[in-house]
Design goal:
There is one protein chain. The radius of gyration is 18 Å and the shape is globular. The longest helix is centred in the N-terminal third of the chain and has 9 residues. The protein has three helices and twelve strands. The chain has a domain of 143 residues: Electron Transport, Fmn-binding Protein, Chain A (Pnp Oxidase, Chain A), CATH 2.30.110.10. The protein is mainly beta and 225 residues long. A hairpin with a 2-residue loop joins strand 8 and strand 9. The structure holds fe (iii) ion (FE). The site of fe (iii) ion has 8 residues, from loops.
Length: 225
Amino acid sequence: MINFESLFKISYGIYLVSSGDKNKGNGFISNTVFQITAEPPRFAASCNKDNYTAEFIKQTNAFSVSILKEDASSDLIGKFGYKSGKEINKFEGMNISYGETGVPIVLNDSIAYLEFKVVQCIDIDTHYLFIGELLNAEIIENISEPMTYAYYRKVKKGFSPKNAPTYIDKSKLEKQTIVIESKKYKCPVCGYIYDDAVENIKFADLPDDWVCPLCGDEKSDFIEI
Ligand code: FE
């Protein structure tokens, strides 16, 4: 049997993977970027085929990885993690630099970045696994801690959206026993759940200008579940 709860015990980081050029590009939040070999330094990055960024990586044969800091803003996570670049220009208003290969590198809320040229692309049904050789790596700031997936889940109360390789259908998780009768409200954009039982303020008492802490969606959009 598979207890899907055990998959949450695997440690990951939280990254922003970008590709494209000066005219057009896109990026997405990923927790599956990891080093495979030391000499030369090669990394793997998994990307859903439906992700707009996958098209840019295929076209340019290059991508960048920004390593997000722990207190990365909800706006950034909402924009890059839960919205599609087919609908909005995610780089608008962002602090972007361009690498040797010309790919955009997001500097906001990041402590370091890496730039890769793609040396192999492995087709794995729903995802591409891009193998990248490291061309460039730089520290942006040395004060903040990198965000881990555990921190993202526990403190930010985030979860993997449907396109993520680590997405788990909630019906597969063990049912939790809820003792306190309370209301729960779900963000329709990112799935964030506001649970009256664990918060200090009831959802109904939150101010009207309160927004989803994960993606910034408005309170009025939340649905009672
Ligand atoms: Fe949300």
